[in-house]
Amino acid sequence: MTAAYIVEAVRTAGGRRKGALSGVHPVDLGATVLDALVARSGIDPARIEDVIMGCVTQAGEQSFAFGRNCILGSSLPDSIPGVTIDRQCGSSQQAVQFAAQAVVSGMQDVVIAAGTESMTRVPMFSNTTLHMKAGIGEGPFPASILNRYGVAQFSQFTGAQMIADKYGFSRDDMDRFALDSHRKAAAAIEAGAFRDEIVPVQTADGLFAQDEGVRFDATLEKIGSLDPIVEGGTITAANASQMTDGSSGVIVVNERALKALNLTPIARIHHASVSAGDPVIMLEEPIAATRKALAKAGMTLADIDLYEVNEAFASVPMAWLKALDADPAKLNVNGGAIALGHPLGASGTKLMTTMIHALKARGGRYGLQTMCEGGGISNVTIVEVL
């Protein structure tokens, strides 16, 4: 069976909400990544057959065929189609899976999988409240669904707190995990670990090329000073991911394209899958998804050199580590979303880019990436660095 290969992977640095990237239109963020992928790979842009763009909040500047708009804002020819997908936080990770399926089937040979999110210019949940402005409708969840699951509303914050309670994590446990994320990210920046994966973005203030959310002076005292998000709970903004602006992407090709275009792959997609579970606790699914993926791939965690488990909330990767008895030394080695930010639809290919570069730097072979997603969904991708 033919395989799917990644020949280039880049990301922008993460901009804080209302920070350095707030003046950049999300289309221009996406276009910057598309241009960088083509330039760094040396591929004739006319050979690209599709762009699959992950984006969660498809409203305002991220609406109206957003993926196609990113192409029109780039230097790519306007003959290239584009599509926008929403699998919540796993949107661009799913874009990679769709791209891999396309090239492995032979229906397409060269596909860009990417993601973009401006959480400054298109606020989170802004697309779910349009019915309120219109004065009609019930929002995304009708009474039939809410009654079925016995909830007044689905909430990622409640889900994160439920996980913390289920696995017995204290506020101090999660705050220490958050501090470690900042320390790892700060060390990675100081060591130049992100230098090759970050494409600079032109802003009104110059080129932006360093993750803005990392707190080099983070302390347990500062992290512990924030109030809980859920009343009486232990989840806070400090032990959760940062709202972030950013973009990322990878080029996925098959063997036919490798030979025809004389390309050198940097990684092979060894496995890709998606599963779903309880939509109430919601964010626990990466555990079951990882077990299913490893079984299907005929692997164990011992075969994996690095893990990227998205730090939507500290309780999520902590529960993943505990349930799977995984090695914490292999987890998010350059920090995670608590420090580096979580630009929703861009996070899938962002984590993949960082994981591939980290594996190369450490001489590792296999990396496993997973993340929690709204609705109780989780993607798992295993890559082999070449």
UniProtKB/TrEMBL annotation:
E.C. number = 2.3.1.16
Enzyme active site: 89, 342, 372
Kindly indicate whether the keyword Phosphoprotein belongs to this entry: no
Q: From what superkingdom does this record's organism come?
A: Bacteria
**Keywords associated with the record:** Acyltransferase, Transferase
Give start and end of each Thiolase C-terminal domain: 263-384
Domain called Thiolase N-terminal: residue spans? 5-255
Pfam families in the cross-refs? Thiolase_C, Thiolase_N
Check the record and name the InterPro entries matching this protein: Thiolase, Thiolase-like, Thiolase_C, Thiolase_CS, Thiolase_N
Enzyme class name: transferase
Q: In the UniProt record, does the keyword Transferase occur?
A: yes
Q: Read off the Gene3D superfamilies from this record.
A: 3.40.47.10
Query: What's a Gene Ontology MF term here?
Result: acetyl-CoA C-acyltransferase activity
Similarity comment: family membership:
Belongs to the thiolase-like superfamily. Thiolase family.
Instruction: List the NCBIfam families hit by this protein, alphabetically.
Output: AcCoA-C-Actrans, PRK06504.1
Q: What is this protein called?
A: Acetyl-CoA C-acyltransferase
**What is the species of this protein?**
Croceicoccus ponticola
